[in-house]
Amino acid sequence: MPKAAFCSECHGYVWVAPDGGCMNGHPGPCLRDFHDAVGPLPPLPGHTDSIPAPVPTYEPPPLPPTCVGAITADRVDILGRRAGAFALDWIIGQTLTYHVGRMLASALSGGATTSGAGVLWLVMTVPISLALLYGYFFAFEAALGFTPGKLIFRIRVVNSQGRRISCLQALKRNAARVVDLILWGGVGFALVSASPLRQRLGDRWGETFVVRV
């Protein structure tokens, strides 16, 4: 509850400032008759307007060093679940994107009836399949915050407030997979292991976290 006091310099009751002085800048020794008050105070001499109550301010307590918003160290320490979810998603994604990529490449190459067309078909299949595979991760994480693999292993991708990530965040974290997957995922694993909140490069760039649910 805000406090009021009589200020000898203002010649009337004023609200007490956070530093213990008068709301008009006079020091604490000028105040007396401190008391809790509700509502506006009477006008000061020479004024006609009453003095409204100060708006209370709230400062949240500082977060511990291992916590960012709703993210805590115990919720992100899930390397086994992440590895299992990624392996399952990779199998699902590879299966789906390979067949879809083959169909698209075949249609674009005119059926690949000659050896030259066959090479063209193969060259087109690889980038199309990779684009679809990255799209698989991006689409699920942007729309739901989790992929089928993450759903089965009960983990999801969130922002620093513990909420679903944005499309831009999903794009950033998945665009960086090309670096995280270097050395068969060794770079990503090393970055996750060294991070207090288990973030790979894509998570750091997109400001995302993978937590258990």
**From the helix content, strand content and strand pairing, which structural class follows?**
alpha+beta
The low-pLDDT segments are none
Indicate the proportion of strand residues: 5-15%
Order of helices and strands: EEEEEHHHHEHHHHE
Average pLDDT metric:
80
Instruction: Write down how many β-strands occur, each being a DSSP E stretch of 2 or more residues.
Output: 7
Largest sheet: 3 strands, antiparallel
Radius of gyration: 30 Å
Strand order across the largest sheet? 2-1-3
- Multimerization status: single chain
Number of domains: 2
Share of helix, binned = 40-55%
Shape, principal axes of CA atoms: elongated
Distance between the termini: 39 Å
Count every helix, treating DSSP H or I runs of 4 or more residues as helices: 8
Write the layout of secondary structure elements.
Blueprint: E1 3-7, E2 12-15, E3 31-36, E4 67-68, E5 71-72, H1 73-76, H2 79-108, H3 115-143, H4 148-152, E6 155-158, H5 167-175, H6 177-180, H7 182-194, H8 201-206, E7 209-212
Helix pairs in contact: 2-3, 3-5
How would you sum up this structure, described in words?
This protein is α+β, with helices and mostly antiparallel strands. It has 2 domains: 1-54, no CATH class; 67-212, no CATH class. It has helices spanning 73-76, 79-108, 115-143, 148-152, 167-175, 177-180, 182-194, 201-206, and strands at residues 3-7, 12-15, 31-36, 67-68, 71-72, 155-158, 209-212. Strands 2-1-3 form a 3-stranded antiparallel β-sheet, with no helix packed on it. A two-stranded antiparallel sheet has the order 4-5. A two-stranded antiparallel ribbon has the order 6-7. It starts with a strand and ends with a strand. The model has no long low-confidence stretch (mean pLDDT 80).
